[in-house]
Amino acid sequence: MLQSKDIQDIFPIRKSNTNKGDYGYVAIMGGCINYSGAIKLANMSLSALRSGCGVSKLIVSKSLSNIVAPYLLEQTLFLIDDMDSNMVFNQSQIDSALNKVKALAIGMGWGNGQDNKKILEYILDKYEMPVVIDADGLNILSKMDKNILNTTRCKVILTPHLKEFERLSGFSINEIEKDKNNITKNFAKKYNVILLLKGPITLITDGTQIIEVNRGCPGMATAGSGDVLSGILVGLLGYNAPSVLAIAASAYIAGLAGELAQKEINDISMIASDTVKHIPEAINKIREKN
Fold first, then answer.
1. Where are the alpha helices (DSSP H) in 170-278?
2. Distance of alpha carbon 5 from its chain centroid, rounded?
């Protein structure tokens, strides 16, 4: 089971002669008018900044601009053309949106727009960077030819819960729970991905190594907690290589921040933004020498 001492090196004290470019531009692409989740998307992009990236850019369709903008302060916003409130594939806009981006998270609240599959395929075909696929992105991927995961130059990180992994893998939830280590490990190896399977004990594997994380609390059973985790994850990837340990560190931070939030508030009243507020304290605790 992962311990804080195992991930202290991921959070070194920063030198004074550094700037935001040294810690990475990251992007978060998602949202649609039927599932805008403006606050959740904002929490996600803020959690990326709180976990240490230099710049966090939120990429959404133009119809969401007035909905999302009021919730953004330090984050930046890039708008993509849309039709019927869903993103449309526009190669030049996507390329502009991803200019300088070191890591991308895609799929949160994205809906089922007809161009979403084309956008995801284009990114996996053209780019070479860590790409975190979550939520609706996972649902789209489950309907695609997953061999694209073996041909992409991106390092893909998948973050499903059990139901999403059932759709991705073809195994039932019962089968997965009975043989979780082997099924997740074999899937990650077959498709050359890092898999983060959410649960009471979160499992992270690249097909060779497996790390388990048991941080978290009942108060995190609330809308947006998964988005906060993906935000932390893409934020870490702004300045860390996409290793199993770095991915596991994101789950550890999210769980620990949630525990600290629950301690201050309670398990009933806690919301996802409370977890975001406690990310700094979680990192402080990880940095403490045992």
1. 173-178, 180-191, 225-236, 244-264, 272-277
2. 23
Residue 82 sits at the vertex; the CA angle it makes with 79 and 85, to the nearest 5 degrees, is 110
80 and 88 Cβ atoms separated by less than 8 Å: yes
Per the DSSP assignment, residues forming a β-bridge with 130 are: 155
How far apart (Å, rounded) are the C-alpha atoms in residues 205 and 31?
28
Q: Are strands 194-197 and 202-205 parallel, antiparallel or unpaired?
A: antiparallel
Query: For residue 63, with 0-12 CB atoms within 10 Å meaning exposed, 13-18 middle and 19 or more buried, which class applies?
Result: buried
0.90 exceeded by the pTM?
yes
Query: In sequence order, what are the beta bridge partners of 157?
Result: 132, 194
Q: Which domains does the chain have, with CATH numbers?
A: 21-211+223-250 (3.40.1190.20)
Decide if 63 contacts 109 (C-beta within 8 A). Answer: no
Q: Are strands 82-83 and 86-87 parallel, antiparallel or unpaired?
A: antiparallel
> Using only C-alpha atoms, what is the Rg of the chain?
18
Residue (of 225, 167, 165, 168) closest to 197 by Cα position = 165
5: buried, middle or exposed (CB in 10 Å: 19+, 13-18, 0-12)?
exposed
- Per-residue tens of pLDDT for the chain, all 290 residues: 999 999 999 999 999 999 999 999 999 999 988 877 877 888 889 999 999 999 999 999 999 999 999 989 899 999 999 998 899 999 999 999 999 999 999 999 999 899 999 999 999 999 999 999 999 999 999 999 999 999 999 999 999 999 999 999 999 999 999 999 999 999 999 999 999 999 999 999 999 999 999 999 999 999 999 999 999 999 999 999 999 999 999 999 999 999 999 999 999 999 999 999 999 999 999 999 65
Q: Which residue type occupies 184? A: T
The DSSP element (H or E) to which 212 belongs, if any, is strand 210-213
Tell me which residue has tokens 């284009």: 122
d(C-alpha 47, C-alpha 55), whole Å: 11
